[in-house]
Amino acid sequence: PQTHRHQFIIQATPVKRLCKTHNAITVNGQFPGPTLEVNNGDTLIVTVINKAKYNVTIHWHGIRQLRTGWADGPEFVTQCPIRPGGSYTYRFTVQGQEGTLWWHAHSSWLRATVYGALIIRPRRGDSFPFPKPNREAILLMGEWWDANPIDVVRQATRTGAAPNVSDAYTFNGQPGDFYKCSSKDTVVVNIDSGETNLLRVVNSALNQALFFTVANHKLTVVGADASYTKPFTTSVLMLGPGQTTDVLISGNQVPNRYYIAARAYQSAQNAPFGNTTTTAILSYKSAPCAAKKGCASIKPIMPSLPAYNDTATVTAFSKKFRSPRPVPVPTKIDESLFFTIGLGLNNCPRNFKSSQCQGPNGTRFTASMNNVSFVLPSNISILQAFQQRIPGVVTPDFPANPPVKFDYTGNVSQSLFQPVPGTKGYRLKYGSRVQVVLQDTSIVTPENHPIHLHGYDFYIIAEGFGNFNPKTDTKKFNLVDPPLRNTVAVPTNGWAVIRFVADNPGAWIMHCHLDVHITWGLAMVFLVDNGVGQLQSIEAPPPDLPIC
Ligand code: C2O
């Protein structure tokens, strides 16, 4: 195994998109940030130096961080933020994961521009479990605002209203041909007849689930979230924010230029097709018009994409995921948990002005799990408080079940729209076998929530619509070859069941990866330990861990 050292300098960098230039926070002046490439088993040492005016942390999304919880990165969960002028070195080893992950800022909405790919190749001496592709390409899907994303979220927090939606979806930071002033920078992915490409697709968008497709080409899915999957073909992918999907594409069509396209699933914008579709170009080397120059009149071939509300396509796609072979899903369960996930609308607090309550009918948007709206501590991280047994920072009383059961698909009383703020954790004994039913409440609006767990991969053993029914739905559990993921796109108006073994001590946040929802409190933490001094307790933090 090798050790890779990198330096990430967080800085403001002028970036021009959609005809305008503004200062974006970047890593090393690059947008998107640098791609990290390692082999399974390698160690990464990344020194982050903060030269920007905002607090920052970096999270290595999907990395298991076995025994290295201090390197996980979410601010106020595993560390205090790196202040302007400060630095912190993240050290961790990739263990048993292969495929595509990514890294991103985990502080306010900085990840809008502070993100990049993390490619994990097979262990040295090993090969892919599929024929070696001729080429590889990374396609990071993102969102671009014609504004500073920090200002966008601050405005939303101030007013209680929903934040402004982004001005473009992007591939590798580029909006593509359908947006103004963008077409000359459209991303090109090369292929040629007879070749196979491995496309590493990442949804790094802040607030938007996205469909992905390539005109005239079938996609063979071979992995997701850095776990291999049993290969299957599809013409369209759907990725919730946080998710990655590795696909093989074959150069088996007439040599030409074909659009690679992505657009919203369940968009808040519902704007007409075109200006909300980001594109890249799959270009055959032997195409008559391979170079863009002089070919302005010959447009690449456009695919059709599912409608923004096409949940049937999403369901059909997600049902195809299997592990390549039988996997060790825990069959006996020590912790059976049921977490509701959803939005809420808080009544305007008495000491607030109406300008601070601009949500629907003079409310403020909020969100919760089991009716607890998660609040980050502000002067210490949860992991520090947990490791040092400092009381009062996080209380270990996150409920195993919602305080009230109700019909999660219907009209419910306004009283259920009022989650209670709190910094609550759920304690898991080291080694316990955990099942979590994640149930969309459909309060305010039914929505597909991408729920991401730090520090673990989990098996998705079932998904469905309506209210989870413990009597009948357990019969649908796949305990043989379910997919291993770090983010589950919980069906809109439905539920998903995940299982994992709590074999990694630490404080691990589980949250909706729509950043607006984490802003509103759609999160909780698992606290995993056997107690101070015992074998599986948490090690002391590294000496350069930022303090508050
Ligand atoms: Cu990709 Cu908590 O994040």
Automatic annotation (TrEMBL):
It comes from the Eukaryota. It catalyses: 4 hydroquinone + O2 = 4 benzosemiquinone + 2 H2O. It is an enzyme of class 1 (oxidoreductase). GO terms for cellular component: apoplast. Its EC number is 1.10.3.2. InterPro entries: Cu-oxidase-like_N (IPR011707), Cu-oxidase_2nd (IPR001117), Cu-oxidase_C (IPR011706), Cu-oxidase_fam (IPR045087), Cu_oxidase_CS (IPR033138), Cu_oxidase_Cu_BS (IPR002355), Cupredoxin (IPR008972), CuRO_1_LCC (IPR034288). One of its GO terms (biological process) is lignin catabolic process. It holds the Pfam family Cu-oxidase_3. GO terms for molecular function: copper ion binding; hydroquinone:oxygen oxidoreductase activity. CDD domains: CuRO_1_LCC_plant, CuRO_2_LCC_plant, CuRO_3_LCC_plant. Binds 4 Cu cations per monomer. Coiled coil: none annotated. Its cofactor is Cu cation. SUPFAM superfamilies: Cupredoxins (SSF49503). Belongs to the multicopper oxidase family. NCBIfam families: laccase. This is Laccase. It comes from Cucurbita moschata.
